[in-house]
Amino acid sequence: MSRLPFDVKLVGIKIGIYGLAIEVQRANLFQRIEICVIRKIEE
Predict the structure, then answer these.
(1) Superkingdom, according to UniProt (predicted)?
(2) I need a surface site. Which of 1, 4, 38, 39 has the fewest CB within 10 A?
(3) How many domains does the chain have?
(4) Is 30 helix (H, G, I), strand (E, B) or coil?
(5) Alpha-carbon distance 10 to 41, whole Å?
(6) What pLDDT digit, counting tens, does each position of 1-42 carry?
(7) What is the DSSP letter of 15?
(8) What burial letters (b/e) apply to 4-13, b meaning 16+ CB within 10 Å?
(9) pTM across the whole model
(10) What is the domain range of residue 17?
(11) Residue 1: predicted pLDDT
């Protein structure tokens, strides 16, 4: 293991969590769009 300063590790973890949150939101958005499109087609 390379001896990284604690701050650098913390920033890396924060960026990782932030990126994950964005991916989850994007997936939710696409799901909502799909549901809307499916409902429109069914009508």
Answers:
(1) Bacteria
(2) 1
(3) 1
(4) helix
(5) 47
(6) 567 788 888 999 999 999 999 999 999 999 999 999 999 999
(7) H
(8) eeeeeeeeee
(9) 0.55
(10) 1-43
(11) 57
